[in-house]
Amino acid sequence: MVISGTSGFKDPVLEHYQLWPWAPSGLRFDMRHWIKMKIKNPFLMKVLKGVFAVLILPFYLIERILFPMESHWSWSFPAALKAIKMVRRNDAEVIMAVGSANSAFLAGYLASWWTGKPWIAEVHDPMVFEGIPGSWLKTKWATWMETLICRKASHAWWFTQNALDRAKERNPELADKGFLVLPGAEEPDYGGSDYQKGNTLTFNHFGGLAPNRNLSVFLKAMALWVKNHPEKKKLVKCHVYGTTLDHVSQVTMTELGLDDIVQVHGRLEYDPKTGKSGRQQVLEIMRSSGVLILLHGEGRFCEEYVPSKFYEYQWTCRPIFGFVRDNHMLEELVLEMGGSSVYADDVESAMKQIDRYFEEWEESGLPDRKTVRRYSTKGAVDKILKEIKKV
Question: Would you state the pLDDT for residue 9?
């Protein structure tokens, strides 16, 4: 049985309850997504968003002054009340809290405390790290929630070794209740697409870009490589799928004169000619890519997370070019898949790696990377179930 927020789609099979948060910040956030999902007329959608924003603004400002927390902090309370009712009605055995939002953990704890049922927790992102954006209260809230998990949860798991080790350092009582899970991904359907050497070596990036997670280092490395090999400039391309260029990448590309190398495709939509969804087109392009660019971003939190895109890339068998920041686990995972890893700010090393990929492409066509191991969702679930049986 599932309890979630209202911004996603309701599960058609499971018993699924979508609840609204109680505080204005959460209502403001969820209502914007709810209107976007329900209202297809663009003009009416903008009008409704504007009207609701104006109506809730006074209450929102008061909340932000008195309680400068993450927007969904108040979702904990309706979720906990609903969970308590569901546990009693169905005699549920285990309460599981899955977090990005810390409110899910508080809801799980409250339901467990009231019903006496064991509570387990899955921590997606690093909860506590140096330089948490936002107010001091948000930092206190995250620190308190981590301590609550480590002390009160029957079992809890993190997605990187650094995140788990640091949680144990701050909360030694976690001990063996905490363990590592690599979330993995299921093998996609590539529609029979395959890699074939073409007229150009392609470096492809998939997913979002932002000022703190941009292509600037790769572009600087590419510009340096082109300067050393001007006659080969027409033989390399960088394709960007799923987004537009962020400001930093855009400025870097323009200043370095790489407009003819970088091609931005944006979000791919349903193609009526082929009947393929945007998602299917992306998968097929991913499988036929020369090299896949994996960005890690900036900030201390990079030490404690692995981009989810890695688990998707691993199934393609294509070389992964990772720009990694202070995360040995991610570096090892990329190398394990036959990819390459450079420090996220190291332009010189990135340039040398581009050169190595180009030489391999010229000599052997840059063949698929064959590895004996892949990380699947099933593997992650099997490990979680094995640990939970100890509850």
Answer: 86
